[in-house]
Write a structure and sequence with these properties.
The chain is α+β, with helices and mostly antiparallel strands. It is built from 1 helix and 4 strands. About 30% of the residues lie in helices and about 25% in strands. About 5% of the residues are buried. It binds zinc ion (ZN). Zinc ion binds next to loops.
Length: about 80
């Protein structure tokens, strides 16, 4: 009865890809061997949550002076 979903790729990078089926509105988030089946609404909610999480993580790292992702610690003033 169900016709196969014709997923269209929305985005792809080296970590994940996101595909979307316009017919039923389902979104698949492919993370390596793991696939999350989402609704469009869930995708938008996750996107919002990820954006906030990334921003807060960066803020915390800056507060802690953690330069691990920068590959170099911020210059420290010598007194
Ligand atoms: Zn579908």
């Amino acid at each position: 009865m169900e016709k196969p979903c014709q997923h269209q790729q929305l985005v792809e990078n080296d970590l994940c890809s996101v595909t979307y089926c316009p017919d039923c509105g389902s979104v698949d988030l492919n993370l390596g061997s793991m696939t999350l089946h989402l609704s469009g609404r869930q995708l938008e909610g996750l996107s919002e949550a990820f954006n906030k999480a990334v921003a807060r993580k960066r803020t915390l790292q800056q507060m802690q002076g953690d330069g691990e992702l920068l590959g170099d610690s911020p210059s420290k003033e010598l007194h």
